[in-house]
Write the structure tokens for this entry.
Amino acid sequence: MRDLSLHILDLMQNSIRAQATVVSLSVLLSEQGILSIIIEDDGIGMSEELLSRVMSPFATTRTTRKVGLGIPMMAENCRLAGGDLQLESTLGKGTKLTATLDTSSIDCLPLGDLPGTVTTLVTMNPDKPEFTLRCASPKGEMQFDTREIREALQGVPLNEPEIAAWMQESLREEIEPIFGGVIL
Amino acid sequence: MKSLAELQAIREKTLNRINLRKEEGEATRVVIGMATCGIAAGARPVMLSFMDEIQKRGLQHVTVSQTGCIGMCRLEPMVDVIVPGQEKVTYVHMTPEKVGRVVAEHIVNGRPVEEYTIGAAEK
């Protein structure tokens, strides 16, 4: 993966496949330049046994395709950038993934096109789950919630091309001032 | 969330389109591989380009959706275009640059872009 926004797109597919009704993404940049990416869902969760296996790229069973390269690749990129990836999960409750990276590390991937990632997720999953996004840095913060959009649209599906264009544009406008320059 | 008011305007505009679509039956489907392999190979910009082209051309009868890994990761990004009543066409190694031609020649004019298809790639 070339940037973190692609990893986020990939990892959030796991939440969708876990039948989550709400998937929350937070991208937070601290004063010290530590970037935290937190993906939280209320999906089916993972058993202790599965949780212990998902970090390994070689534990995958091709027939079930329950695990694969998504998580181990992100974990590796976090470690390369002086950070870490942690997973907490409870069967029937949901899963929380926390990835940290030190943006001052030369090996830290750029954040990339986060508006594109969110727009893609919403457009490809127009009915469920609901997505929330929170971005924050010392420069400011923003929030996004598909429930608000759904309410404003009153029955018009979220995957209409005009709405995708609007989403990308308005997310870009809001996210760029928060992370712009440093890690975009 | 900024500019929710703008959404109201978009809503009005799209409502007519949706009603029109309901009257006219089955849509052309664009299905994009969005597993780890697809995403790493560049499926996201391809998908966004499809949405962009569909919007610019005001196409009424096209839906875009995603699928997982179908086991041919080396050919990603892969896109299936399914025109009702015709055989499915699978495009491989897609790029945003190729999307314009697929939309114009295949989806609008009904002639698949042979050179981008899996048949041409596997020769």
Remarks:
- Residues 63 and 75 of chain A are 24 Å apart (CA to CA).
- The helical segments of chain A are 4-17, 48-53, 70-80, 114-124, 146-153, 161-179.
- Residues 161-179 of chain A form the longest helix (19 residues).
